[in-house]
Amino acid sequence: MNKNSLHKELFSNLKTTGAITFSSKSLVNKMLSYADFTGAKTIVELGGGDGSITRGILERMDPDAVLYVFEISQAFCDALEKEFVSENVHIICDSASNIENYLAGGKADLILSSLPFSLIAREEREKIYEKSKTNLSVQGKFIQICYSYLLRFQFAKYFPHIHTSFTLKNFPPAFIMICN
């Protein structure tokens, strides 16, 4: 899928993509700077989109780590599957609320998310929060890109420790919530 097709998918499904543009390289680098990839064997990405975060994860993760990328758009999944052909990358065209169905009883060391929680129905959103917390290892981190600081209060119901960062180097400017 070329960039024009990706942008068409982005705009035609604004309610599920929750963005007017893809994450900038600067935002991705800042987000991933809060993740310790050394020794992380199970990594989950929620909202694969155009693969900008996926590419950053693959550049940093250990060769024996496994990456599970959740995306609900079939068009994005198809593009991700074509770009990321590897035995240790699993593109999953399903809701993040079903994370436990794919981890085979294991726990994620890192969950990196760009899901548009402000646009996700409350019941589904809370299910994703709960499943993320439940399927995260004790020392694991849940790192979220978001555009509203108010989401911090929703995350606080599930994660006792939250560090917040902000970057202007994205359109629109974004918050990064680092939760554990």
Automatic annotation (TrEMBL):
Pfam families named in the record: Methyltransf_25
CDD domains noted in UniProt: AdoMet_MTases (cd02440)
Entry-linked InterPro entries: Methyltransf_25, SAM-dependent_MTases_sf
Signal peptide coordinates: none
Domain Methyltransferase: 43-137
Protein name per the record: Ribose ABC transporter permease
